[in-house]
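Lab notebook: predicted structure, single chain.

Context: the supervisor wants predicted structures on file for every construct in the current expression panel, including those that have not yet been purified. This is the next one on the list. No modifications to the sequence; it matches the entry in the shared construct table.
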Amino acid sequence: MLKRTFYNYSIPVILKIMKRVVATGTFDGVHEGHKFFLNKAKSLGDWLGVVIARDTTVETIKGHTPTYNESERHALVESLHIADVVVLGYPGDKYRILTELEPGIIALGYDQQTFTKNLENELKIRDINATIVRIEAFHPEKYKSSLIKKASQNRKPLQ
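Prediction complete. Output recorded below exactly as produced.
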């Protein structure tokens, strides 16, 4: 993929020219499926921002606390060095961060449902003109957070 060079432009102009992609998720223990998702999302543009769900959002949506707290999940995703920026979402209004990041593309996981229900309407309300792209699954029978978590809970301790 040919990358554009921006050395003749100021930072604000560069940010307007760049194709910005935003991906969101819980990322409660990073696995190969997450890496695949983030790399695919990154390939859609020039810049990738990742929004990590707040602990309170995870509790509300999934009905349980995440294994790793929001700071740990933030650090895990940042340590992959795939995203250009990793941020925590806002408590309550999970769409608010999109106004700040101004994505041209929003990458969704193959099984991401909650964030998508009102997404198109929220983008219109906030005057964000973004294309929504759903990233295909990467071996979901093996790399799905809920399956990995369940398998680790069912393992017998070593004696």
